[in-house]
Amino acid sequence: MISSTDRRSVLAWSGGTLLLIASGGMLRAAAVGGLPPDGDAYSPWQYWNAPSLKGTPLALVAAGVLAANPHDTQPWLFRISDAAIDIFADLSRNLGAMDCYVREMHLGLGCAIENMLLVAAPNGYAATLDAEPGSLTALAARDGMVNAATLRLERQSPNPPDALARAIPDRHTNRYPYDRKRAVPQQWRDFAAHADAGDDVRVFLFEDGAERDEFDKAVVDATLSIVADTTMIADSDRWLRMSRSEIEQHRDGPTLEAAGLSAVTYMFAKVFPVSPETAHQAWVDQTRAQLATARLTGVIAVRDRYDRAGTIAAGRAWQRLHLGAIAHGVAMQPVNQPIEMIDRERATGRGDAWRRRMAQFTGGDWQATFSFRAGMPTTDAPASPRRALKDVVTQQRS
């Protein structure tokens, strides 16, 4: 704790800006949810649709790197030619015990692929996806790059971007409280019930009643389990970027700016040391508050959560859900803790209590691989950092 005798701090609001005076020094920061982050780490959000990239395969990659992905690890590499783009899983950017089978990594690759498919036609390409078959349980290595999919490209006349493609630069994970009193637009809700996902991916939505209450409880309980697992929480914490210099150096990872904190909490977290125990308890408390304000929660399910192609398809579905939400003014956030616990139990041989617990929401024919909350926003979500194209594009495809 910080006593008045240890530090003198005065907080004041002025013109949407929080001024903090601490230990005789003054810091100035934009109010959380106000000005967008700046710096080169955020530049891909502006140049993704640059005229210099238009009509080239690199334009598809520039859209792909803006996709949702676990812990902003951006676990992708691309090899391009005029006729194809290979998408690789960069296994060195794995989440360790938080993603024991790199399942979430492949969900993120699916999100990137969906962005690429959405901008293919506007850039004058017909794109066909070939996803690599096999099981995620066979990917034992945790370094190097493994091909996950290939986009086959054929030239065609450009078509105007649709609503989902236009939403790409505005899609950000919103971790702030939502307004539960406001209903989500029915048009998006109808879309969310299927997300054009195909026969091998299904979306389950929960709004009110016992099932919703049980789902929310499962997310909170899973968060508590992760916090109590020292290996899992350490593998999560190592990606957190606290300072501007860390953000610019790594251009990845969760940031305080995008954590959904109140302005006062944000500034204290920036200035004053916080113990890991305090931070972890704050995550549990924030998870409870986030769920309480969400109008809807939901699950994306597949036939086999460890099938590589099925996992990529589920990631594509999440990206479509989120882009559709942005197009309709709806905020969304992953809450994947229960499924992370399914993976952890399986990897450690601790049983299958979490698998059985999540099966109550999907039935025996479907397996949950992604879970989320949705609602009407109270605050705009800021962007997250992104790696430069030069860092994710490997050699030219022969």
Question: In percent, how helical is the residue content?
Answer: 25-40%
- What does the largest sheet look like? 5 strands, antiparallel
Q: What count of structural domains?
A: 3
Oligomer state equals single chain
Give the DSSP E fraction (strand runs of 2 or more residues).
15-25%
CATH topology of the largest domain: NADH Oxidase
- Class derived from helix and strand content: alpha+beta
Average predicted confidence as pLDDT? 89
| Overall CATH architecture of the largest domain | 3-Layer(aba) Sandwich
Structural shape: globular
Verbal overview:
- The protein has 398 residues and is an alpha+beta fold.
- It has 3 domains: 1-31; 40-167 and 384-392, NADH Oxidase (3-Layer(aba) Sandwich), CATH 3.40.109; 171-377, NADH Oxidase.
- Helix content is 37%, strand content 20%.
- It has helices at 44-47, 57-64, 103-120, 163-166, 186-192, 210-228, 230-237, 244-250, 263-271, 276-293, 308-327, 337-348, 353-362, 389-392, and strands at 9-14, 17-22, 25-30, 76-80, 84-90, 125-131, 145-155, 178-179, 201-206, 296-302, 331-334, 367-377.
- Strands 8, 9, 10, 11 and 12 form a 5-stranded antiparallel β-sheet that branches. The chain has a 4-stranded antiparallel β-sheet with strand order 4-5-7-6.
- The model is unreliable at 1-35 (pLDDT under 50).
